[in-house]
Specification:
Protein name: DUF6729 domain-containing protein
Domain DUF6729: 7-84
Organism: Prymnesium parvum
Distance between the termini: 61 Å
Radius of gyration: 19 Å
Order of helices and strands: EHEEEEH
Shape: elongated
InterPro entries: DUF6729
Number of helices: 2
Length: 101
Amino acid sequence: MTFDAVRPVPEVFYYRDLFVWLPDVMFSTTTMTRTVLTCPSCSSTCDNKVHGYLKARRVFSFPEDYFVMARRHMCKACYAARLLERAEILREHVQKLKKNK
């Protein structure tokens, strides 16, 4: 009896699921536009520019763990940098989804 049949393949352990959280793209109404976000600091609705990406964070889940990435945006009016995963941003998108239904 050989143990080759039960030996795990190392490549399987290198691949993980990755979720990229981009609500301005995910909740847009058309494929060519992005959802305009409201700045929580100055309440302007100007277009925000991308201000970098965060490192992927591990989410412990069953049956497998996965990683989540998000990007930072900077308001062009007040130059406040923010994450799109904060609670007020998520609430804003949930309200927009409810209005569109």
